[in-house]
Amino acid sequence: MEIKTPKSERRMWIIINFISLILLVLIFELIKSGFLTQKHIFFEIVPISILIFTYIQQFVSTELWKFTHKSLQKLDEREMQLSNKALRFSYSFFTILSLGLIYIYSLLGMRIHVVFIASLLYLAHILPAYFISWTEKTTTNEE
Amino acid sequence: MKGRKIYNRIALLRKEKGLSRVELAEKIGVNFQTVGYLEREEYNPSLDLAFRISEVFSLPVDLIFSTEPLKPLSELIIEKYKSKND
After folding, report:
1. From A2, A76, A143, residue closest to B34, measured CB to CB
2. For the CA atoms of chain A, what is the radius of gyration?
3. How many alpha carbons fall within 13 Å on the CB side of residue B54?
4. What are the tens digits of pLDDT across the range A11-32?
5. S-S: B25 plus which of A109, A133, B32, B68, CB 3.0-4.6 Å?
6. Structurally, how many domains does chain A consist of?
7. Contacts of B34 in chain A (CB under 8 A)
8. Is B33 part of the contact surface with chain A (CB cutoff 8 Å)?
9. Which residue does chain B place closest to A139, by CA atoms?
């Protein structure tokens, strides 16, 4: 895993990725609740495209996604610590966020749709990479 | 529990040996980025890794790592020279 882009740029991509995920769910929920018509489903193309683009650009090309799914035997001791920290943060963040969202859904009497579940699963999958990309220093192979 | 900061002379010794970060990383079995973290003293190595580093440089562990800020080698030589002359 090599992180060559500056931290500020990485953080910007994470925020864009996260916002596009929220938009994806929001547009779907607005259609389902009748605020938008079925025709507006085509608007989903925008957040999906941004989500895929930022995912590939930030997590696939940098091998960050691969790093968070590597077996422990392939990591050195510092990387193991980093992976452990990222997973711990993701677990707490995901639990709190899921509980909060489920509570809001039940308060508003909304049905939970497959897009919502799929988005949560994507988030659970990508959160460790978010954490590492957000916190890690830019590395170079100099000296 | 947050551990104490461990100071080291890895960067100096690596340069003296003419090794790149990648070469040193291969010798001690870590990623080259970890060598960077060690050199910047942002990561405290395990005892096993500290011994592997000391084996590469053929030096005792306490000469490479310390819990106190390390004096420059030139200063140590001067001190040794002075004590020899006294």
Report:
1. A76
2. 17
3. 16
4. 999 999 999 999 999 999 888 8
5. B32
6. 1
7. 76-79
8. yes
9. B33
For residues A58 and A45, give the distance between their C-alpha atoms in angstroms, rounded to a whole number.
20
Q: Which of B27, B33, B34, B37 to mutate to test the interface with A (most CBs of A within 10 A)?
A: B33
**Which chain A residue shows the shortest CA-CA distance from B39?**
A143
Option in B22, B43, B49 nearest A141 (CB): B22
CATH topology of domain B7-85: 434 Repressor (Amino-terminal Domain) (1.10.260)
Q: Look at residue A82 and tell me if it is in a domain.
A: yes
Residue A142 falls within a domain, yes or no?
A: no
Q: Is B19 on the interface with A (CB under 8 A)?
A: no
Close Cβ partners of B34 (under 8 Å, ≥ 6 residues apart): A76, A77, A78, A79, B25, B43
β-strands B7-8, B65-66: how paired?
antiparallel
Q: Of all residues in chain B, what percent are helix, strand and coil, respectively (each to 5)?
A: 60, 5, 35
Closest CA to B56 of B38, B75, B79, B76: B38
- Is there a domain that residue A2 lies in? no
Question: What's the pLDDT tens digit per position in B19-61?
Answer: 999 999 999 999 988 999 999 999 999 999 999 999 999 999 9
Q: Which domain holds residue A95?
A: 7-135
Closest Cα of chain A to B77: distance in Å?
Answer: 26
